[in-house]
Amino acid sequence: MRKRSRREQHMSGSDRPRRSSSDRSTTADRATAVRERSTRERSSGPGNERPAGRSADRVRRPKRAARDAILTRRKVIVRRSVAVSVLVGVVVIVAAVLWTPLLGVRTVQVSGAQQLTAAQVIDAAQVPTGTPMLRLDMSAIRFRVHQLPRVGQVDVVREWPSTIRIDITERDPVGYVLEADGSHLVDRTGRDYATIVAKPPGLPRIVLSKITPGDQRTQAVVAVLGALPTQLRSLVQTVTAKTPGSVTLGLTGHRTIRWGSMDDSARKAQVLAALMTRPGKVYDVSSPELPTVS
């Protein structure tokens, strides 16, 4: 047989040198490393992002919680600071309004005075100048002004920042009572509220033993005088009443009106206006359904 050449012997599997197990493992490890590197490079490219693993979440969660806690504390601090500032501002304003003359009384104005003067009303009101507006006792001022005999109604109003306005309504007389010291004016409440020396023109004289708001005869007389129409009131010279149901009016020309009680006064006034177109001396409207002239 022909001898094989060295080349043939070298290419023959039987004569080929064999790799050791350590060489084979090293080669496998290298191949595995190459594959892992390639895999990482592919996955790190655009569009191949993967969600973070558990370890990344565990790192991020404490950081996020810490940031949230810091923001929450800051919000609480800001809110508390604002609340404290507002409270301090309110306290300062209240103190300035209640305890300093910053919003104190500087002016007192009076309206509605006719027979009275503004100075008389202001003196009676006794409004302390400089006193904080909110600390004024408005009821006490109203009470003091109402003690003036001529004042029938009174209202006290604050006009910010520093003015007190006093609105009064003086009493309107419906008659007078002649006394030794002069003529006493009587309003529709039956109160004797003022005295004048001369006889008041255009007012009837009330002839009663006493004049007080609580007296029934007084109340009947002033109610009748208040119900008279203007044109008839100017003709009345005297008014008297022996009882609350027997009011009698004395007119000019020696004429007399028997009015009776103060009930149905409006109806009696209407009937009397028509009845007085007839001649007579005594006009009786005590019963408006059956009036008479004699």
Low-confidence stretches: 10-17
Relative helix content: 40-55%
Q: Please tell me what the overall shape is.
A: elongated
Q: N-to-C SSE series?
A: HHHEHHEEEEEEHHEEEHEE
- Which range does the strand content fall in? 15-25%
What is the spatial order of strands in the main beta sheet?
7-8-9-10-11-12
* Biggest β-sheet description: 6 strands, mixed
Count the E strands: 12
Helix tally? Answer: 8
The oligomerization state is: single chain
- On the 0 to 100 scale, the average pLDDT is 82
Descriptive overview:
- Helix content is 40%, strand content 22%.
- Strand 4 (173-179) and strand 5 form a beta hairpin.
- The strands form three sheets. The protein has a six-stranded mixed β-sheet.
- It contains eight helices and twelve strands.
- With 294 residues, the protein is an alpha/beta fold.
- Helix 4 (118-125) packs across helix 5.
- The model is unreliable at 10-17 (pLDDT under 50).
- The protein has helices at residues 6-11, 21-43, 54-99, 118-125, 138-146, 216-227, 230-233, 265-275; strands at residues 107-111, 151-159, 163-170, 173-179, 182-187, 192-196, 205-207, 236-241, 247-251, 255-260, 282-284, 292-293.
- The chain is elongated and about 155 Å long.
